[in-house]
Amino acid sequence: MTAEDILNLIKEKQILMVDFRLVDMPGRQHHVTIPAVEVDEDMLTRGVAFDGSSIQGFRGIEESDMVMRPDLDSAYVDAFTAVPTLDLVCDIYEPSGVRYNRDPRFIAQKAETLLKRSGIATDAYFGPELEFFLFDDVKFNSDPSGSFYSIDSSEAHWNTGSSDGPNLAYKIKNKGGYFPVQPTDSQHDIRTEMVLELMNAGIRVERHHHEVASAGQAEINFRFDTLTKVADTVMLYKYIVRNVARKDGKVATFMPKPLFGDNGSGMHVHQSLFKDGVPLFFEEGAYGNMSEMAMHYIGGILYHAPALLAFSTPSTNSFKRLVPGFEAPVNLVFSKGNRSAAVRVPVAAVTPKTARIEFRTPDCTANPYLAFAAMLLAGLDGIKKGIDPGKLGYGPFDKNIYELSAEEKAQIRSVPGSLEEVLSALEDDHEFLLEGGVFDRDFIQTWIELKRTTEIQPLSMRPHPHEFQMYLDL
Q1: In this model, does residue 164 exceed pLDDT 90?
Q2: Where on this chain does L-glutamate bind (predicted)?
Q3: Which residues belong to the annotated binding site?
Q4: From the annotation, which residues make up the binding site for L-glutamate?
Q5: Pick from 129, 85, 92: nearest CA to 243
């Protein structure tokens, strides 16, 4: 779209406010709202000034002036504002007009540019599957006098004996939430409402369903797209899901592990490469009908996985999901069907154009621009270096890993067990991310420092409520 197209859209839809939005390093959206009568072609072209020192991971106060310049193709008429509002996703620039190296969207765009220059492929397609919970009540607090969290859901198994109002039963059993019909699936209608809003926003939705966990775990799948576009879609998806939930009196959370003892929420990411419209991951008759290029891509993902997880599972809560026994993809192997494998090769109803790999370890605390860019770079490194996952001991493992002997299990590598471990792995293994200047050392160092100082250290210094149960009487 052009600036003239946007101004015409503002008139056509009787837009009163225009929202300029950016994404910070961890992956949260921020916005500034401007009356539509003040928006002209010059503003849509040159952008809007903002204080970069107030955005996590961006600038110091001594160099805070920055510019957010809208991508006009991202225009979305907001469904959740009291007055007609147009939302625009922005790229970040220095005052000099140079793109800002810590802008996550810029990193995603550079990854796509690198792919085209490599000659390997012209397009990388990503299809993330986002899982989330819909709760009826969430309380939490953390201060010097104490800390706690409390969540509730009317469909949760712990409410079978609740006496608050008429108890209509049909609760979701622990790990019993996969595909039940109504009335057990009490959230069918709200997910449908979310789907309709996603479709109104131009997102092509494929299906929705209740997920395995109790207490309102859900999944809504949308169609794959190219890297930056699909990262934009993830941000809009989360915005729509959260706001529909809030409108209907619920809380949507994309935390990987909000419930103890039940399945967590992931973001399985399907990936494939094409060159001028020709699929590159298909070879009929090979393992999983995967081409040699696809196998090398898998090799790159698994070889760099310990470092890659610093961007694809980048929270302390991520590693409460990545434990055995909850369909969690904790094993650094590939497989055609094993859902505990980090990489799965889908084989059902696959055609040359739908041949793909599925990286199952990521979750929704990932900044999608950074995570997808890092995955692409790991896969490309595997292709360039001819990394054979079979020769490196990554599989294939098509058996039930939980039923293997102790000797067989000992041969399988697992994902790191904490955020600190994957940050250390990133310190040791990040050259593949520097290819083509997609990431740079400044960004990686800033990311590691940000995670350690704002997430790991604050959590490690606070007493945990469960420690009182374990240690109070010692």
Answers
A1: no
A2: 263-264, 321, 327, 339, 360
A3: 129, 131, 206, 211, 219, 222-224, 263-264, 268, 270-272, 321, 327, 339, 353, 358, 360
A4: 263-264, 321, 327, 339, 360
A5: 85
* Location of each CATH 3.30.590.10 domain in the chain: 123-144+219-230+240-471
Q: What are phi and psi of 242, to 5 degrees?
A: -65, -40
Q: What is the CATH number of domain 3-100?
A: 3.10.20.70
**Dihedral class, residue 223 (left if φ above 0, else alpha if ψ from -120 to 50, else beta):** beta
pLDDT digit string, tens, across residues 323-376: 876 668 899 999 997 778 999 999 887 899 999 999 999 999 999 999 999 999
pTM over 0.90: yes
8 A C-beta contact, residue 114 and residue 436: yes
Domain with CATH 3.10.20.70 in the chain: 3-100
Q: What is the dihedral of CA 38, 44, 46, 48, to 10 degrees?
A: 60
Structure tokens at 197: 């809003």
Backbone angles phi, psi at 390, to 5 degrees: -65, -45
Q: What are the binding residues for ATP?
A: 206, 222-224, 270-272, 339, 353
Fold classification of 123-144+219-230+240-471 (topology level): Creatine Kinase; Chain A, domain 2 (3.30.590)
Interatomic CA distance for residues 189 and 179, integer angstroms: 14
pLDDT for 1-30, tens place per residue? 999 999 999 999 999 999 999 999 999 999
